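User: ok so my PI wants both of these folded by tonight, can you help

Assistant: No problem, let's get them done. Here's the first:
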Amino acid sequence: MAVTMNSVLLGHPEAAVHAALGNYPELFSAFYRSQYEYVLRICRRYLWRHEDAEDAAAEVFLKLQALDTEENPIQSRSWLSKVTGRHCIDKLRKAKVESNRCAEGVECDSLPESFEGSPLSRVLRREDEENVRQALRRLPREYRILLVLHYYRQLSYAEIAVALGKQMPAVKTGVFRAKRLLRDKLLAAN
């Protein structure tokens, strides 16, 4: 089936998507602009760092542009979501394999005594810590207490349960919800 500019302009969505992917660069550009935020939101769900999510979103569109055959058109937004999710999962798996590979090859004697890094990395770390503190302050009191006890005071779930007079499953659920809410607030701030 030959895709013509007329079929694209007349609103045939499958033809439009196929044409956008390969035959008409200006249409691919429009497709990219219309779907980028959607793909980026999906990537942010999988990847913690904003930069990693942006890289993954760009990589997804590079993959889509390589699908220049009529056998592989973009079928729907849910299909686009699956492709994006699978790409992010693959990216996380590769990062895990790389970190395991790097950890095996490192000799502890060659590690520096201090990991403070450059002045720029210290400034960035302080900014990140301040962002976390501000987001933590905006959490409900109950969640804030759970996170402070667990991460800053480094208490176990059992110790927190005893200190607050709660059951351990309630503490675990509370910490999980608090982390999710904190993550959402941090993502909203970026």
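One down. Here's the second:
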Amino acid sequence: MKKWQRVTLAAALAAATAAGLTASGAAASAAPAAASQPAAASFHGGPGANIRLIETFLNDVLAEHHGDHAANYLTADAQFHAGTVGDFTGRATVAAILASVVAAIPDLHPSVQDIFAHGDEVVVRLVVSGTQEGPLLGIPASGRHVRWDAIDLYRIKDGKISQEWASEDLTAILNDTGTYKAPWIP
């Protein structure tokens, strides 16, 4: 990591900690969670429980490649906001999108870099990688290794994911699948 990136990350972590956020993952050692925030024992209530819910979801659905389990983590009226990819509503629809990603990249590996929670929201910064063996977002299977950065915001309601705002590096996905090479990519 470059010096300016470390400084920026440290400043963001300091601001997040000052705002009372709970931190876990790679950032946990750099910015300890506020001592006044107790850890919850289940997925119902509190930033600690919400972080555990998202970590369990990412591990089960993505890392362990159980796309068919996605619906178990979603509210009936779940919403998935994916920028230019589109907005999707309903447990079955959102679960199908997540399952299609896992099916397209059967060796998908989500590497959580940072995870923060405040109230009913959890923010995750991760690096996603794997081999595109099936259609992904309408892109035919390429057999190529893909890797992209993502920052996702989840809203939790009654111990389940009610909304996700997904910010994936689509330029990296397009580049790695051989679909489009931006002029600034070497």
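Strands lie at 22-25, 74-81, 87-89, 109-118, 121-131, 145-157, 160-168. The mean pLDDT is 83. Good luck tonight!
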